[in-house]
Structures are given as structure tokens and as C-alpha cells.
Amino acid sequence: MAESTRFKTYNNVIDTLAQLGTNHYQIKTVSKGDIWELDLNKNTMFPVMHINFINVEASKSQMIYNFQVFVMDLVEEDESNEQDVLSDTLQICTDIIATFKSGESLYLYNTTHGEEARYFVDDDFTLDPFTERFDNSVTGFVFNLPIIIEQPYDSCFIPQPTTSIIK
User: Fold this and answer.
1) Element (H, E) at 65
2) In CATH, what number is assigned to the domain containing residue 62?
3) Least trusted range by pLDDT, from 11-15, 63-67, 124-128, 149-153
4) Measuring CA to CA, which of 126, 151, 164, 165 is 20 to 30 A from 94?
């Protein structure tokens, strides 16, 4: 398998996260971008998963892509379904976390040395509930998702001439 599959780019990471939301049977809309650009108009189908990219931490042999993931649904005006919405959106959040923690379909592929992980996450997560957020009366959960990937920092593949740059 090609090294481009092994070492992930920003596009690989965010597209994989978005596809995870698209594949989830309960999520009806997946969006990406700044949270203030989230468009919850009358045509939006709920529940919504929104991916907000925060930053990247680069260390010696890995990169950590930090995302905020929002999962939300509409609440009735009388708030009669608020508890159900909180319960359902929390379950969706834990499904996403579980897939990154142990979902073989997401982060494993076969190599000559056996299956090797390509996406990693930390052990602990804090999921914060919110109610009546944004322009619509949406309720749900938000959590930070740090996705850890290998990064060899191999200068052999930098798109530049191989001649010396020192003058």
C-alpha cells in the first residue's frame, strides 16, 4: 500500500471524519468550517454533525489535528423532547469516539507486517451539553477530538530541487 495512505494529510483527516458522520444512520447533515458559519436554515435536516477545525500540533514524529465536533438536533418549543435530544446526540458522540478508539473499518489497513493503526485518539474525552444554541432551538453536545497521526517529516518528498539551497 502506498505511503500516501499511511501518512495522512489534512484532507485525509477531515474527509474521513466527515465520511464517518455521513455513514452514521442517525446523522442527516454533516457540515465543516468555522462554527459561526454554520447554517441551520429551515431546509437543514437534523440531527447535524458540524466539524470545526481548531489547529494542528506538530511534534517530533506525529501531528495532532484538533477538531471541535458538534452534534445537535431540534428541540420542540415546549422543550418536551429535550431529554431525548440530549440522550440521542450524546450517543452519536460516543459512537464517533468509539469508531476512532476501536473501529477497525476506520483506521486499520493490511500491510505486510499485519494491521497497523493510522489514526489515534487519546483515552479521555469531555462532552459538553448545550441547549438553545445558535439561531434555531438546537440542543446537543460538543467535544474536542484530537486526531493523532504519524508524521515522519521526511525531507525527501519536499517539492523542491535536490540541489543545495545554501549559498
Assistant:
1) strand 62-74
2) 3.30.2000
3) 149-153
4) 151
Q: How far apart are CA 70 and CA 161, in angstroms?
A: 43
pLDDT (0 to 100) of residue 107: 47
Beta bridge partners of 127: 143
Q: What number of other Cβ atoms are within 10 A of residue 30's Cβ? A: 17
Strand 138-150 and strand 62-74: the pairing is: antiparallel
Per the rule left: phi > 0, alpha: psi between -120 and 50, beta: everything else, 13 is alpha
- Asked if the structure places residue 28 within a domain, the reply is yes
Radius of gyration, CA atoms only, the chain: 19
Residue 165 domain-assigned? no
41 pLDDT tier (thresholds 50, 70, 90): confident
Sign, Cα dihedral of 151, 103, 56, 1: positive
Domain count, the chain: 1
Element (H, E) at 94: helix 82-102
User: What is the reported pTM?
Assistant: 0.83
CB atoms within 10 A of CB 86: 18
